[in-house]
Amino acid sequence: MSVFSEIALAAPVAVFKLTQDFNNDSFPQKVNLGVGAYRTDECKPWVLPVVKKVEKLILLDEGLNHEYLPILGLPSFRSSASKIALGEDSPAIQEDRVGAVQCLGGTGALKIGAEFLRRFLRDAKTPVYVSSPTWENHNAVFLSAGFEDVRPYKYWDKENRGLDLAGFLGDLESCPEHSIFVIHACAHNPTGTDPTQEQWKQIAEVMMRRKLFAFFDSAYQGFASGNLDKDAWAVRYFVSMGFEMFCAQSFSKNFGLYNERVGNLTVVAKDADNLKRVLSQMEKIVRFTWSNPPSQGARVVATTLNTPELFAEWKDNVKTMADRVLLMRAELKAKLQALGTPGTWNHITTQIGMFSFTGLNPKQVEYLIKERHVYLMASGRINMCGLTTKNIDYVAESIHEAVTKVQ
Predict the structure, then answer these.
(1) What is the pTM (predicted TM-score) of this model?
(2) What are the tens digits of pLDDT across the range 49-78?
(3) Which segments within 158-284 are labelled E, that is strand?
(4) Are 150 and 142 a contacting pair, CB within 8 Å?
(5) How many CB atoms lie within 10 A of CB 243?
(6) Which residues are marked as active site?
(7) 160-170 pLDDT per residue, tens
(8) Cβ atoms of 41 and 389 closer than 8 Å
(9) How far apart are CA 298 and CA 241, in angstroms?
């Protein structure tokens, strides 16, 4: 009898299981619209040219070694990451009340922030609100940190395929004071639907008045619109309103550093003294979580952000990715409309970022996978980067067939 014999087999992670099923499929026209990673028009992973350039510079730097980084991470990475989130001229940075923790991807940044909130600011019964729907890890991260009450807040208007602002504001007004709200900074995952600037102002006003804690998740800055400042607008507005808050940043998408796990947790505090105490406790949490972060990806990001010509090149690289996604959105919408596909498809181009919430139901998704070999999440979410000029006609025809044949 094994000591592990009573262990139940866990269900596979849906998005990775989808990729495995896709890889095992021998159909020549198969299409993977599931995985959350950028692909070129040849459907290949893209190593950003600026990343290749910086990696060569790092390789030739005789002054580098493999000693441990500080527990909180590479200082030049942490400061530059916070600057692109808050802006170079952010008063909060100038007032020395912004700090950061280098983390293992955006997930690690969420985890450290959640652990800190649970240990020092909130008890286990404090409600944590995540959008409905949201990225699946949001629920798991806060539950694993010890929060017992993770709730959805209204976000997606299924009928109109857009933002349910009234429902969102209603939940902000009715929730307990001091609740934690996990907010997507831009390119909401999975819906691709973001509030307008005027809507963000309404959201911030209610959150400030009701003493709610804002925990931003910024995984797509630059990738959403092609403009770093535009994609950071909500985060910067909240800081300008005087919020003390967290912002989890990921550099997987906008640098293409998926397997390097480069993340940052930006902390905005009331003043330098509060910031110092917060970071001192976060250092303890990091110490018993992963002890010290890895250096390679952080050096790539720090070198790029702190070198003007490389920074400019990176922004061009990011815009290249964003522009391709915008083109695929326009093409898919046009092809579905040309086919006369039932329903409205305007949401494909009003949504933004890597993902589109198509509105396809689970039965239509099942049809697409089994009959057309087009792989997408059961929610109907598709990765726009999986579309190319070579497969978009097939995908549009497949969606048209699924919608007309399956209700």
Answers:
(1) 0.93
(2) 999 999 999 999 999 999 999 999 999 999
(3) 162-163, 180-184, 213-218, 245-250, 262-268
(4) yes
(5) 20
(6) 135, 217, 253
(7) 889 999 999 99
(8) yes
(9) 30
